[in-house]
Amino acid sequence: MLTLYDFGNSVCCQKVRITLCAKGLDWEPIKVDLFKTEQYDPKYLQLNPKGVVPTLVHDGKPVIESTLICEYIDKTFPQAPQLTPADPWLQARMRLWTKMVDEGLHDGVTELSFSAMFRERMKNMSPEIREKRFRNVGDPRRTDRFKSTYELGVKSPFVAHGIAAYERAFKMMEDTLSGTGGPWILGSNPSLADINLMQYAARLDFLGLLDLWIKDRPHVESWWTAARQWPGFKSGLRDRISENEISEMRLHGPKIANEVVETILTVRHNMAAVMS
């Protein structure tokens, strides 16, 4: 039996749901409301000491960390489609992309989302509740990031780091897809490399910011078209986000677009200077 401790608009949960749907698996969802800080409930912390979502419980055994959960699912349920290539070199290429997500894009999309939407919510909180939310982050590094983004918005260096991570990723993606011929990162079949990136591109798209990176990258645009049409993406992500959540993202994302463009241009200038 599979149980997924889940939150609908969490990019990490979306990654796992896409994988479950792609494999054709059934699971029992249990909602963990992040805005009510249910991730810090003592019973949940026994399953996931980090106090984050998702957590997958398979036959009573918890598996944490979304990237590891996806690999666990693909290994444990070997029915088609196989999302991890058999070739060790291609496996290493796949994990290069999942590593890029975990080490840069995840924090980047968190800070962009925070600066666009959640920052406004926190401004309307009382100082006592706001400080409680900062304390509940649990990880001191995350606390530093959230406080910086709350105070500075897109001007926070942590947001700039995230924007730079996306620029590097989309540039590498364009080069990779032009070499493999696509439509997927490793060639003709989707893999966990693609799944790991889908929800991060989707969040930018919902925020109305994705074109700032990919409008002049035709191979990435083609990949995104294929990703949106892939059944696992639709059933694991798009169909499980409420229209209210989508409307909120579309409302607030464009408000930061001009500042994001300025940072992208700065990053591109600096990258060109290094390459020259």
List the helices and strands and how they pair.
Layout: E1 2-6, H1 11-22, E2 28-31, H2 42-47, E3 55-58, E4 61-64, H3 66-76, H4 88-123, H5 127-136, H6 140-152, H7 157-180, H8 192-206, H9 211-214, H10 218-229, H11 231-236, H12 243-252, H13 257-275
Parallel strand pairs: 1-2
Antiparallel strand pairs: 1-3, 3-4
Helix pairs in contact: 1-3, 1-8, 4-6, 4-7, 4-8, 7-10, 7-13
Describe the overall structure.
64% of the residues lie in helices and 6% in strands. The protein is α+β, with helices and mostly antiparallel strands and 276 residues long. The protein has 2 domains: 2-76, 3-Layer(aba) Sandwich (Glutaredoxin); 88-275, Glutathione S-transferase Yfyf (Class Pi), Chain A, domain 2 (Up-down Bundle). A 4-stranded mixed beta sheet has the order 2-1-3-4, covered by helices on one side. Helix 1 links the parallel strand 1 and strand 2. The termini are far apart. The mean pLDDT is 92.
Number of helices: 13
How is the biggest beta sheet arranged? 4 strands, mixed
Proportion of residues in helical segments:
55-70%
Q: What is the N-to-C order of secondary-structure elements (H for helix, E for strand)?
A: EHEHEEHHHHHHHHHHH
SS-based class: alpha+beta
Tell me the fraction of residues in β-strands, as a range.
Answer: 5-15%
In short:
The chain has helices at residues 11-22, 42-47, 66-76, 88-123, 127-136, 140-152, 157-180, 192-206, 211-214, 218-229, 231-236, 243-252, 257-275; strands spanning 2-6, 28-31, 55-58, 61-64. Strands 2-1-3-4 form a four-stranded mixed beta sheet, with helices on one face. 64% of the residues lie in helices and 6% in strands.
